[in-house]
């Protein structure tokens, strides 16, 4: 069993029966953040208005409060509904530097029932090139399991 399988099982058990989006986000952010030393900032940005993300539950230092879909890695993930893996944030056009320690990040869309975009999961690392397709697949599966019926 991989570390992600163990993590997914723990998150599944903690989230069983819960339907509140914020409670689920808080639990997932906490479990993910403390599961991997690469994860320097782990949190959610919620869709709160058309084309607008607002900070949700997170672990780590302060995050940006509001991110339009038109800006940054989080905005790109929300706009395209595709996972964004950024090996070097300095090379990403329009990157929003919420923390000077961030070197790489992965941002995943969070999709609920009826194909509704709930928000995005943003994980930053203070290491360059910290994320890959293995992370994308495992994290996408965890998010799908937790939020699919919400």
UniProtKB/TrEMBL annotation:
Q: Which residues form a coiled coil?
A: none
Name the UniProt record assigns to this protein: GAF domain-containing protein
| Stored SUPFAM superfamilies | GAF domain-like
Report the superkingdom from the record.
Bacteria
Q: Which organism is it from?
A: Paracoccus gahaiensis
Q: Which Pfam families does the protein's record reference?
A: GAF_2 (PF13185)
According to the entry, every stretch annotated as the GAF domain falls at 55-143
């Amino acid at each position: 069993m991989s570390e992600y399988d163990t993590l997914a099982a723990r998150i599944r058990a903690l989230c069983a029966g819960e339907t509140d989006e914020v409670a689920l986000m808080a639990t997932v952010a906490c479990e993910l953040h403390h599961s991997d030393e690469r994860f320097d900032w782990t949190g959610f940005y919620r869709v709160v208005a058309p084309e607008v993300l607002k900070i949700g539950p997170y672990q780590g230092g302060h995050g940006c409060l509001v991110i339009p879909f038109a800006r940054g890695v989080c905005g790109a993930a929300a706009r395209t509904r595709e996972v964004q893996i950024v090996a070097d944030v300095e090379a990403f056009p329009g990157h929003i530097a919420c923390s000077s320690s961030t070197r790489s990040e992965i941002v995943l869309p969070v999709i609920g029932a009826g194909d509704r975009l709930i928000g995005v999961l943003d994980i930053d690392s203070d290491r360059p090139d910290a994320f890959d397709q293995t992370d994308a697949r495992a994290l996408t599966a965890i998010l799908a399991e937790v939020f699919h019926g919400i």
